[in-house]
Amino acid sequence: PLLEAPILEAKNITRRFGGVVAVSDVSLTVGKGRIVGLIGPNGSGKSTMVNLVTGELKPDLGEFRFNGEVITGEPSYKRARAGMARSFQMLRLFHSLSVEENLLLAHHIRMKSSLIDTVTLRRRAIEEEQAVRARARELLAWFDLEKFAPHPVSALSIGQQRMVELARGMMSEPTLFVLDEPAAGLSPPNVDRLITLIRRMRDEFGMSILLVEHVMRVVRDLCDEVVVLDSGVKIAEGLPEAVVKDPVVVEAYIGS
Ligand code: ADP
Ligand code: MG
Fold it and tell me: Which residue range or ranges hold the ABC transporter domain (predicted)?
């Protein structure tokens, strides 16, 4: 039998912005149920790579496969439907809406096509609506956010907002979650909580994760393997313990 395809394969991805080669011939693979870290100094191309993976940007060269299927030209909403979720380095929540509304909205944005005017379809839409509400409640409980459900996001701490962002991403039942610096701005106890939660997201939902992160503790504790970028180029990959000691990697961080 054929080996099961990895959930994500990036092959020889290149993306330029004018004269800047933000990502240069980068390949990486995320196997099913794996947590793969993407690290590198500021400006090394991590966020660009995330945007290429999720389809917000198109590569100049290279190919992406998701569950073995080529998705290189697919827009981000199609990738989301196929099971990709992401979080943003700068959170993108609706601050004046409640926590619960943010979760419900995440779903509705992707479901406009259910507004069709027949009784059967309307009934189906109502059932779907109830299922979505049930899922939102389950996720709020899972992330220990129930007590914040009716409150506006603006009333929450950054740490709590990051949890809302993760819960929102889970609404679409993703199989791959791409996280762009989820620990940014978190206090040490909140970093601990985040590590535990991301590990549980993998273990309990069978999620695969591509994790961009600056906080080395998060990388060391969570990642099965790590890819290191410097000036858009992949300079190292392997086990986190080995990669963080690699002289080439140390040099790249010191030089930045
Ligand atoms: P990182 O997330 O690792 O800090 P980025 O992917 O944000 O790095 O940036 C990589 C390089 O690409 C930087 O030199 C940055 O200035 C450049 N870059 C990123 N996005 C754009 C853009 N939209 N337009 C022009 N240059 C960009
Ligand atoms: Mg970035």
Answer: 8-256
By C-alpha distance, which of 106, 96, 93, 30 is closest to 65?
30
Phi and psi, residue 73, nearest 5°: -95, 0
How many separate domains does the chain show?
Answer: 2
Q: How far is the CA of 132 from the centre of ligand 2 (A)?
A: 32
Determine the residue of 15, 17, 90 to mutate for testing ligand 1's pocket, defined as the one with the most ligand atoms within 8 A of the Cβ atom: 17
Q: List the single range of 65-74, 125-134, 199-208, 229-238 with lowest mean pLDDT.
A: 125-134
67 CA → ligand 2 middle, Å: 26
Q: Are residues 102 and 164 in the same domain?
A: yes
Q: Is residue 88 part of a domain?
A: no
145 and 178 within one domain: no
Whether residues 131 and 76 share a domain: the answer is no
CA of 56 to the centre of ligand 2 (A): 14
Domain range holding 182? 1-83+174-256
Taking CA atoms only, the protein residue closest to ligand 1 atom 11 is 22
The packing angle between helices 99-108 and 158-170, to 10°, is 30
Q: Which ligand is nearest to the CA of 44?
A: 1
- Full-model pTM: 0.90
One domain, residues 199 and 143: no
Tell me if 46 CB under 6 Å of ligand 1: yes
Q: What is the pLDDT of residues 175-224, one digit of tens each?
A: 999 999 999 889 999 999 999 999 999 999 999 999 999 888 999 999 99
By DSSP bridging, strand 233-238 and strand 225-230 are: antiparallel
